[in-house]
Amino acid sequence: MTMITKRIALGTAAAIGFVLASAPAWAQATRTWISGVGDDVNPCSRTAPCKTFQGAISKTAAGGEINCLDPGGFGAVTITKSISLICDNTQTGVLVAATNAIIINSSTAVVLISGFDFEGLGQTGSPGTNGINIINAATVQIRNSKIRGFRNGFGIFAQPQLGSLKLFIDNVTVSESGGTGNLTTGGIGFFPATGMSITATIRNSVVFNNTNTGIRIDTVGTTGNSVSLKIDDSQIDNNGNGILVKTPVNTGTARVMINNSSVSLNTGTGIALNGAGAVTRVSNTGITGNATGVSAGNGAVLSSYGNNQLDGNTNDGAFSGTIPPK
Question: How many domains, in total, are found in the chain?
């Protein structure tokens, strides 16, 4: 081999090495796929899907989407970027013991979760902690899903630590969550850290058969935080307490609007407010079959628009006042 030939060969090899080093094997796709018969060594493409959400999320670009091809148990996942997990057209299972099913932890993340069946194994000796644990996020949408059996925490737990959270829950059933060993657990929990805020809507959903409380807002031990919650066309039935709002003086505030819903058959109080920071308005809602229908203490204000059905409770209780129609 001549010197010129050697130089050409070396140059060609170097060029090939550069191309290989910069090849898009590391590149993230904007849409990836998972399958019950997939493999996480795959690129998560339509024809070579991954097996789990955790395997696919590292191969999906921020702001991208993961879809499910067929039924499967796809495992727990931690989300630290904007992403959509959309699996409405198949059976998408996430089953966990003694841990969280989904953790969201990025104050800038915009996350959509749709079409899931979360199982926390609440009837076993090692139940799950939280179904969806939102530590930090900008916006989270949860829709068309069932969450059950998270006896060590909440079905959905919103506890923003570093910024404001917007949360939208639509067509979701949360059941069999919360445990007797921790009274601050239940179906859905709103616990913003000091100075943080949550703006949330629960629509067309069922919060059923949860221990302690169906929906809990709690600012105990914090300051300067707030929760604004709108509940529409939903059922908060057969829990311990239906809706519990705790905002002691000098902590935070909670503003709740309940419309066209049912808060019934709860073994404790249907709607219970405690603290001067709690203001709740109720319209066209049935409150019946509870041990106590409604209660408001320590400066809380619970108002009716005059079109609710408050009867048939062991003790109906009373609204703080009526808002006249305008």
Answer: 1
